[in-house]
Input
Amino acid sequence: MSLFDFVFGCSHQRCSFPITVKAKLRHSAAAAVTGTYVVCLDCGKEFPYDWTEMKMVRSKPDSSTTPNPITVAPGSKAA
Output
């Protein structure tokens, strides 16, 4: 591991060919999402892979796309 990777983390640029596993053998969290996953060759992390989109997909929905509503109590002044 280089100092750059230690400070900033792995960029996951070098990944394996997509691996599809049988339904009964899906022990990996990445494989459980789509049934297919790729592995980063530098750090070993597994990522779900979508064959129809031909790219890695997020294992959890991105919370930044759906912001939490902000409630302001009556009588309060907003800053």
Remarks:
- The chain is about 15% helix and 15% strand.
- The mean pLDDT is 78.
- Residues 3-8 form the longest helix (6 residues).
